[in-house]
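Sample entry (242 residues):
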Amino acid sequence: MLLRNNTSFIFLLVVCCLVNGVSALAQQHSYGRSAPSEDAFKPDTSSRRGVSLRTNLLWDGVAEPNIGFEAALGKHVSLGLNAGIKTWPRWLAWDNDNVQNTTHWRNFAIVPEFRWYPREVYDAWFLGVDLVYTHFNVGNITLPLRLYPEIRNNRLQGDFYGGGLFGGYSWWLGKHWRLELEAGVAVGLAHYGQYECFHCGPMLDDVRRLALVPKLGLNIAWNPVERAKSARKAEKDNNESK
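Predicted structure, serialized as tokens:
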């Protein structure tokens, strides 16, 4: 109950901050426009900069609501923040506790990140570094690649603190929408209690260990500022020349 109350409040606070940040930056972009001049009709290569909101469809697929925010700091670099929360123990919020379904999975995660785009921010390949914090309460789960097999027969509750590297690719789907694919790994300290059963029982061990956490994302992203016409035209010309 403490996890549900505290992490729900933190997650809602993060979401409010992200939404307010996007609104403020979008208004600043709108109000900051000056009267049309001859420069206004020159090719604009900076209109893809600004802010972006995204969600990881893979997290959504396991019923974990999440949101990501990214702000361009320049032509090639950006700063972002991702957050996700799952306060119910089953796959869906309305799944009930019962003998037949003993899967237990609650967690809260917050991940600030820094990205570098060789071509231009929000476009094509990118590399990044991130910091990861997550609080987890899991049991009776089989993870891919046989990661953490003790989760299959015990319940683990604790925290992970770490940092990692990742890379990916961003495709523009239109003027405002993008699709991102990213993968990476984080390494850090996991501190958790290992319990006898999935819902109750005494603590068997207090564990501190070095842990690896893989990162995989299929993100759908929305940019309030539309993609530059000059960039779209250049891409079209490039495809026609092939």
